[in-house]
Amino acid sequence: MVKTYLTGFILLLGLANARAECPDGWTIYAHNCYLFGHTPYSFHESQNFCVHFGASLVNVESDAENTFIRGELMTLKAPRHWIGLTDEVNEGVWALYPSEEVATFLDWSHDPVWPQPNDGLNANCVAYFNDHDYHWVDEPCNNHFNPICKMPVPVNGNRPSVVG
User: Any signal peptide, and if so, which residues (predicted)?
Assistant: First the structure.
């Protein structure tokens, strides 16, 4: 019995000392790490890039998270970045990638000249666009934009470094 309590105490002490950090080159926000890639890839190549780091293209879940990402992109003056959202499986139904869950948060560009989403069968993947004030635009998946990767903050664990 004393051994059980002692083991539990040591475990809690270890957890209390654990530090949550993102890998070098990643940005922390709300218990997640974000990588704003600098090399353009197609949508599917971008997902593979993120998976290499144990992450996935970002699935934007809330207005707060979207505001954070838009702010980072504005600071970086980044042109276009893929997010994990597509209607490749079911045209017009925007789903998170790769889970295929229907998205509950959307932030389409409201540009009256170029309303979004607008390209039907030709544009099945979603990116932030600088010329749309970093709101979302549907684009052909084979276009080459930079990825935004997201993963939970590792705790004293594997911290992959960014290459490329």
Answer: 1-20
Question: What are the residues whose beta carbons fall under 8 Å from the beta carbon of 92, sequence distance 6 or more?
Answer: none
> Do β-strands 32-36 and 27-29 pair in parallel, antiparallel, or remain unpaired?
antiparallel
pLDDT digits (tens, 9 = 90+) for 7-64: 343 333 343 444 579 999 999 999 999 999 999 999 999 999 999 999 999 999 999 9
Residue 160 maps to a domain: no
CB 34 within 8 A of CB 26: yes
Residue 41 lies in domain: 23-152
Domain count, the chain: 1
Which of 135, 138, 112, 142 is CA-nearest to residue 125? 138
Domain assignment present for residue 137? The answer is yes
Secondary element (H or E) of residue 57:
strand 56-57
